[in-house]
Amino acid sequence: MGKQxxxxxxTHGERNxxxxxxxxxxxxxxxxxxxxxxxxxxxxxxxxxxxxxTRRAIIxxxxxxxxxxLSALLLLLHLCGPEARANSQLYSAAxxxxxxxxxxxxxxxxxxxxxxxxxxxxxxxxxxxxYCAEIGTLYRALSAEATTAYxxxxxxxxxxxxxxxxxxxxxxxxxxxxxxxxxxxxLSLVISTQAPTDADLLSVLIDxxxxxxxxxxxxxxxxAPDDADPFAEETIRVANxxxxxxxxxxxxxxxxxxxxxxxxxxxxxxxxxxxxxxxMTNPFIARAAWEACGGEVDExxxxxxxxxxxxxxxxxxLTALVVVGRDDAGRWHCRAxxxxxxxxxxxxxxxxxxxxxxxxxxxxxxxxxxxxVDYAFVAQRLCALxxxxxxxxxxxxxxxxxxxxxELRRLNRELxxxxxxxxxRDMTPALDxxxxxxxxxxxxxxxxxxxxxxxxxxxxxxxxxxxxKLDKAKATGRIDGLVAMAMAMGRAVVTNDPxxxxxxxxxxxxxx
Length: 512
Hints:
The protein has about 500 residues and is of the alpha/beta class. It contains 20 helices and 17 strands.
């Protein structure tokens, strides 16, 4: 009997589930006011967090699966439930005041609907605070629009919709995470649909959690596979655990049908409903197609014929050069190099919300001395590559052509520099060739993270005739690397060089 009793004793997480169902009420909707009944997948999350040491829990699935409601339930556990610690500070963090107010509103409704909780928790609507006087616990909703989050000491934090953060850094996130270091057992809850790109903060956290390097970081991710039929019901179920339950199946299928009819809505549908990591601005190339081309670059190919695209940007920005060549199997090999001024790299990293400083440390970006890119340094690098490889042409943006030629004259060198316009006439065939090769997985770019960022940011614009060019004004960030890559490949496929001509390029069989 003793052994059986011990076996039936609820775990830490199960006791928390019992408390939620005993004291919390559904805050809104068809069943408002009724006791919460956790679904099996919700119980799995709660038990997963509390049955073993957890520092950070990352939960991600499609929208309308009650992410914020689940956050509010866990918040109340720490405010006035079995996880409450005397005089502790609790916070929720969001990117906007409206989003911050949403979690506060749901938690407040739960308190007011529960005869038990409203006896102990007072609501401070104006300050967006909940206070449990008996324990001394205080919850406050914060937004990124607030002046500061420093000086706090949270024991529990909800990072709501962290996928809205662009880039790998958030001052609010960092302030709260570092502040929690003063606590003995702090807990952070990250709950959101996925971010658009690999370089965004939530993506960085998810990818790190997938490695399993830190056992105190737990991940629950519902996301549809990139290669699945996006409009099939079974695909939708994969990303939406509440589908057919409190998530209206008919409504979701209507959204799928709408996205099928109107391609402009597909990216948004994939991100918000299928919880896929996809840029909602309809980027030039899909993330899945780019990642499929991440094979190792064979630089020996460049010794038999190479083309180097150069995007020489403004002096205080990112400069890119990309070397391309083609192997005997018809695959393109692309090696990218990037240059940026050393002075002010930390500030530019914060401005663009991109880790230039970390990439420079890891060797992906070369920092040139001073506060601007030294064009002489780029010219010297091109000369070195020309000495190393069989460089057939160096396509170059016309408006910076005189700058590079001046530096080459000072070096007393002549290189096969050719002008390459950025308008529809020159860029259309280049983008067609690049897109075709990427879609058919006939590119090896080596997984360069800076080039990946450029690819994810790139947006193509069309004219009335359907011609395309990369539009920096519409891009979500730097695209210099992809511009250079397109110029190099574009020049290569239209050359009359007998080693490579456009007819053989089109006639080649698809290489898996």
